[in-house]
Amino acid sequence: MLELEKDDNGSRQGKSRFTSLDYPCDFGMVNVRMTYDSGVLTVVEYPSHDNTDCRCETEASFIIENVPEGDLMLRIYHGDTSGRYDVGTPGYSGRIEFVGGRMSVPY
User: Fold this and answer.
1) Between 100 and 60, residue with greater pLDDT
2) Cβ count near 26 (within 10 Å)
3) Can you give the pTM of this predicted structure?
4) Strand 102-105's sheet: what is its strand order?
5) For 2, which DSSP code?
6) What is the pLDDT of residues 25-59, one digit of tens each?
7) Which secondary-structure segment (H or E) carries 86?
8) Which residues are paired to 44 by β-bridges?
9) Can you spell out the DSSP letters for 28-58?
């Protein structure tokens, strides 16, 4: 699940959180990279390490700067330890709309 809540002070900043990420137990750190272009917000989450066979569930909180106004297309990807991902297989892809300054999507 990805949850995003816009700050209500007009800053266009959003508090975001991934819940229930399935990561290798030695993941080290959850990295998040975001881009916004032509109405599409792309979020890539990826581990720092992946050298073990065991899996763990973790969460990650982060800030999105300059949250676009109105509805937008959101694409979420899981990347390798270098942040590379397959653009053809997003973990989530869909149009989203903030309701009361909040939104959440299954991921």
Assistant:
1) 60
2) 13
3) 0.88
4) 55-64, 14-24, 2-6, 102-105
5) E
6) 999 999 999 998 888 999 999 999 999 999 999 99
7) none
8) 33, 77
9) --EEEEEEEETTEEEEEEEES----S-EEEE
CA–CA distance from 80 to each of 19, 22, 30, 52, 77 (Å)? 19, 13, 11, 14, 10
Please report, to the nearest 10 degrees, the dihedral formed by the alpha carbons of residues 32, 43, 33, 19 taken in order.
Answer: -10
Taking phi over 0 as left and psi of -120 to 50 as alpha, with beta for the rest, 20 belongs to left
Q: Which two tokens stand for residue 45?
A: 């989450």
Which amino acid is located at 103 in the chain? M
| CA pseudo-torsion sign 78, 85, 3, 17 | positive
Which segments of 1-107 does DSSP mark as H helices, in order?
none
